[in-house]
Amino acid sequence: MSPFRVLVIDDSEMAREGIRMILKNTPDFIIVAEGSSGEEAIELSEKWMPDLVLMDIQMPGMGGLEATKRLKEKYPYLKIVMVTVSDDIAHLFDALKKGAQGYLLKNLNPGAWHDYLKAIAIDEVPMTRDLAFRILKELSPSGIAHSQSNPLTARESEILALVAKGLSNKEISSQLEISEHTVKNHLKNILQKLHLANRVQLARYAYEQSWLGKNSDKS
Fold this sequence. Notes:
This protein is an alpha/beta fold and 219 residues long. It has two domains: 119 residues, Rossmann fold; 74 residues, Arc Repressor Mutant, subunit A. Helix content is 50%, strand content 12%. The protein contains ten helices and five strands, in the order E-H-E-H-E-H-E-H-E-H-H-H-H-H-H. It is globular and about 50 Å long. The N and C termini lie far apart (36 Å). The C terminus is likely disordered.
């Protein structure tokens, strides 16, 4: 498989150097270009057509969130991961609303970057348990929307709850004693039924619909 083409956008040269160091020893990624602003993110994306953009949030001129919104409108296929020092939950939700597929803190252990970014690139991103907990904690009861009907089967609802708790496909297959392939097919059906694009959106949806914590029978 060809390496995923990465565009790095950060106004800090030190941050870009750090990302280069993290990615240089893996054959799965190749950095095709670097920039320091949202404007450059748009310009370089058009020129290089990357698979993945690592985007800082706060930059002079156009920030990363606005650049993400514009890039996703123009290139829906493009995977964008926000890379930031901020762990503000508001930034996370704003990034998701703008279309970002992931969110990495710059102080995260470099060893975790590779697996996370590869999972993003191949659409197999698990929600981290810490992130799932923080989202659950931040959502107040008044902010939770309740759907009138659940279009999912009992098994699909069960899998959705496990995704939102941060379990990977492998962990879900082990816990439910079904094959990983079956889990993937269930997830495809869930995404299609709910008109969602990825696991992060699934997890957020589960919290908003207050489906977590409900026990489902196996189907």
